[in-house]
Every structure is written in structure tokens, then in C-alpha cells.
Amino acid sequence: MSKPLTLRTKLMAAFGAMLALMLLMAALAWRNADAAHGGFAHFVKDDTRRMALANDVLDAANARAIGARNLVLAASPADRDTEVRAVDAAQQKLDKTLAELQRMVAGDGTADEKRLLDAMLSVEAGYVTVAKDIVAKARAGQRDEAITRMNAECKPKLAALLAAANAFLEDAMKVAHASVDAAEKDFQANTRMLLAALAVAAVAATVMGVWITRDIMGALGAEPQALGDAALRVAQGDLSPVRGGASARPGSVLASLGRMQQALAQVVGSVRNTSDSIATGSAQIATGNADLSQRTEEQASSLQLTASTMEELTTIVRQNADTAQQANQLASAATLAAEEGGEVVGRVVATMDGIAQASRKIA
Questions:
Q1: What is residue 53's three-state secondary structure?
Q2: Per-residue confidence (pLDDT) for residue 45, from 0 to 100
Q3: Is the distance from CB of 154 to CB of 130 less than 8 angstroms?
Q4: What is the longest distance spanned by two Cα atoms in the chain?
Q5: Which residues of 103-128 are buried (b: 16+ CB within 10 A; e: fewer)?
Q6: Overall domain count for the chain
Q7: CATH number, domain at 64?
């Protein structure tokens, strides 16, 4: 039989699950943010940059055309030199812009972008030859020939170049709008995903919160403040029944506190009964001690009387001994006197016998 999960294990499991949900939501948010960042970076670095370059192509082409026109119309050599420098600057900008466009489209450009760029480069290749010839004629003072070729060839090629650049710009704008739409769709999808994850996390947190709360309250049996108050009352000697202890879940802190109160009450009752018994026994012992003390005093009096009697008896015995000694002395004297008297009597008897014999002789 498996052991029930401890409160610590349950709390760690609940918080671990919440941490896992938080990490999952953080991972989803990071993935969405990374995708949004990638889309935004692509929009800024690629889509917007392509549109900017297409506009630069248009600006440079127009600036070059205006410079060529002004060069043809310039009256002084100084004005022609100024316009030549303007045409050269516009041409350098145009070449640089087209080169950057070629690098970008060659990397991750779509088929339409490559096709439109090729068309624009093809038109530019034809245009630049005519433009350079017009500039050369204008610088050489061949104004009429330059104007004739400008009207005959340069304008149509310029119109074709601008049309190709506008077509590329429109395609770039279409791609940019598609990127924005895709980003919007991704944002909505990611938002729904995050909301779903948030709903799951909220439900899981609610379920785990209710479960943990019920489990903890079941394990405690009451609020911690109520348990503290009950324990304090017991500690202060109040052994009245703990409120709710009898109906608390077995094994809970409140139930254990109730059993502890009952056990303490029983122990105190037993101690009180034992104390009463000890008090009764002590009273009996005290009474016995009093009786024993009285008997001891009586015995002491008897012993004292006996001692007095023994002293008197000793005195009497001593007197009797003295009397006996005196009697013995008297007896000895009497014996001696008797012996002496016997001798006297013997002599008397002898004398009487002598007298008697003498008398008989006389007779």
C-alpha cells in the first residue's frame, strides 16, 4: 500500500506545476516575441528597404534626367559643368542603389521581384547608353543633336525605366502589405494561443489552489489563529474541551489538539485523585505519627518511671547489701561469741562435771 502524499510533497507538486505553466507561457511569449521581432526586422530591413531603394531609383533617374535636360539647356560652360556633376552624382547614386537591390533580391527575393528587377536593369542598360551620349554631345556643344536624341530615344527609355521602377515599387509594397497581414494573423494566432494558455493556467491554478486549501485546512482542522489560541489556552491550564476538536478530521492538528486536551484532562484528573489519596494517606500518617508520638511519650514516661524505680531498687539493693554485710559481720561476731561462749560453757560444763564428781566423792 502506497503512503499518502505529505503536505510538503503536495505543495511542491502544486508549485512545480505552476512553475511549469509559467515557464510554458514564458516560452510561448518568447517564441511569439521572437517571431514578431523577426517579422518586424524583415519588414524594416527587407521590405521597407526595398521600397526605399525603389524610390531612390526613381529619384536618381529623375535627377539624372533633369540634369541631362539642364545640361542641354545650359548656356555657359560653368552651368554645363554644374549640370555634368549633377548628372554624374545621380548616376553614381543610381548605380549604387541598383547594386544593393541586386544583392537583396539575389538573397531572398521572390520570383516576381527578380523578374521586375531584371526588367528594370535591362531598361537601365539601354537608357544609360543614350544618356551618356546625350551628355557627351551637350558638353561638346552639339545641342541640337542632343535635344533630338533626347526627344527621340531618351524620353521613351526614361518612361520605361520609371515604369519598371514603379512596378518594382508596387510589388515591394505588395510584399510589405503581405508581411503586415501575415504579422497581424500571427499576432492574432499568438494572442489566442496565449489566452488559451492563460485560461489553462488560471483553471489549473484555481483547481490546485482549491485542492491545496482544502487539504491544508483538512490537515489543520481550523485556522492557524484558532489553533494557536486553543494551544495557548491549554498551555495556560484551561483544559475545557477544544471547540471543534471532536468533529475535526482524524489526524488533523485540531483533532490531535482535542485528544491532547482530553489526555491532559485525564492525566490531571488522575493526578488530582492520586493527590487526594496521598493527602488522605498523609493525614492518616500524621494521625498515626501523633498516636505514635503520644505512645512514645507515654513509654518515655514509663521508662523514666522505671528508671526511677530501678534507681530506688538499686538504692534498696545497695542498702540491703550493706545490711547483709552488717548482718554478716554481726553473724561473724555472734559466731565468734558463740564459739567463745561454747568454750566457756565447756569450761563451765567441765567445772560442773568436776563439781559433780567432787560431790559424789563427798557423798
A1: helix
A2: 64
A3: yes
A4: 255
A5: ebbeeebeeebeebbebbeebbeebb
A6: 1
A7: 1.20.120.1730
pLDDT of residue 363: 57
With beta carbons less than 8 A apart as the criterion, state whether 60 and 97 touch. Answer: yes
Residue 69 has pLDDT above 80, yes or no: yes
Average pLDDT over residues 125-152: 84
The pTM of the full predicted model, rounded to 2 decimals, is: 0.50
Using 50, 70 and 90 to split pLDDT, how confident is the model at 148?
Answer: confident
**CA 129, CA 157: separation in Å to the nearest integer?**
10
Q: For residue 52, give every residue at least 6 positions away whose Cβ sits within 8 Å of its Cβ, in sequence order, or none.
A: none
- Residue 169 belongs to domain spanning: 7-220
Please provide the average confidence, as pLDDT, over all residues in the chain. Answer: 78
Cell 524594416 belongs to residue: 44
Could you read off the pLDDT of 261-289 as tens digits, one per residue? Answer: 677 767 777 777 777 777 787 777 777 76
Cα atoms found within 13 Å of the Cα of residue 88, Cβ hemisphere only = 8
Q: In the chain, what is the straight-line distance between the N-terminal and C-terminal CA atoms, in Å?
A: 157
Number of continuous H segments (helices) and E segments (strands) in the chain: 8, 0
Rounded to 5 degrees, what are φ and ψ at 109?
-75, 155
Residue 362 lies in a domain: no
> Does position 112 have pLDDT exceeding 60, yes or no?
yes
* Cβ pair 123, 30 in contact under 8 A: no
What is the model's pLDDT at position 239? 66
Neighbours of 209 (CB within 10 A): 12
Give the Cα separation of 10 and 162 in Å (integer): 72
* Ramachandran angles phi, psi of 53, nearest 5°: -65, -40
- Residue 122 CB contacts under 8 Å (≥ 6 apart), including other chains: none
Q: How far apart are CA 126 and CA 122, in angstroms?
A: 7
CA–CA dist 161, 164 (Å, integer): 5
Cell of 255: 483533532
Cα distance between residue 182 and residue 39, in whole Å = 9
Cβ atoms of 258 and 240 within 8 Å: the answer is no
Answer yes or no: are the C-beta atoms of 239 and 264 closer than 8 Å. Answer: yes
339 inside domain: no
C-alpha cell at 345: 560453757
All three cell numbers of 260: 491532547
